[in-house]
Amino acid sequence: MTVVGKVVVVTGAGSGIGRATALRFARAGARIAACDVDQGRLDALAAELGDRIIAVRKVDVSDRAQMSGFADAVHAAAGAADVIVNNAGVGLAGAFVDTKLDDFDWLLGVNLRGVVHGCHFFVPKMVERRSGHVINISSILGIAPLENVSAYVTSKFAVLGFTQSLRAELAPHNIGVTAICPGLIATSIAADGRSTDALKSQRARTIEHFKTGLSPDVVADAIFDAVRTNPAVRTVGRAAWTIRQLIRIAPETAKNVVNRLQRTRAI
Question: Which of 152, 162, 210, 224 is an active site residue?
Answer without folding.
Answer: 152
